[in-house]
Amino acid sequence: MVTSFSSDIVDLVREGFELKKGFSVAMSCKREQQPLIVIFDGSLVFWHLESKPSDIKEYFFSLYTTCLERFYEERIPIVGYISLPKSGELVSYIKFFLDELSPYELESLSACSGFCREKDLEYVIDSYLGSFFLKPLERTGIFRSSSSSVMNYSAQIIPHFFYLHVGHEIVRVEIPAWITQDIAVLNTICGIIVDQCKKGRGYPVSLSEAHEQSVVKGSDRDFFYHLIYKFGYEQQKRMFISQKSLKKRGIGI
Fold first, then answer.
1. Which residues are within 8 A (CB) of 251 and not within 5 positions of it... i.e. 6 or more apart?
2. Which of these, 138, 228, 237, 253, has the minimum number of CB atoms within 10 Å of its CB?
């Protein structure tokens, strides 16, 4: 049970609603026998929960993964779309490979490629690495996420990922484990994402439209926090809102 409040909690609750709403809409389309995938704006590895207190982390992790399980049960593909990814998981694999080489092997590799030391990869990210070999509309192979967070996922929804060149940039696409063995679904996912990016001039048009519809005016946001703060005060709950924010929002009892 979450008893404390902060703007971070609002973001966590919103993310849960997004997953639930996505599933609800997807089920409506499924009943109408329409082909579909659900594109989630962000990662299916819920990194942001790692820094949260254990009770909050457990509550929301259970909420999110339960939603992913429902997608699996209905065999509705859900993908996490990440534009301008900063991840370095593939680079970490290369570093691990270099650590396993003998001095002779390192010297031979250096003679062939011109680089072989970890420091040569210090500022390299996966998408930059992919730019050397991915052509437009091509994707990498599929990799399981190396995050320690995925240890708590059930086997069928463990996040995997690949990089896809959508024409304007190389994006990271995350999928649950159950999708990785279905090449037809994978091809459909890539085709839909590329088509969405073409229509959106570099970014999925469906996500762009969703962002536009979700914009909240400043006055509405302030009124929302005013109600939350007032309700928390009446229920004697702790409120983690700085005095600076209180003054800026004009929140009063």
1. 222, 225, 226, 229, 241, 245
2. 253
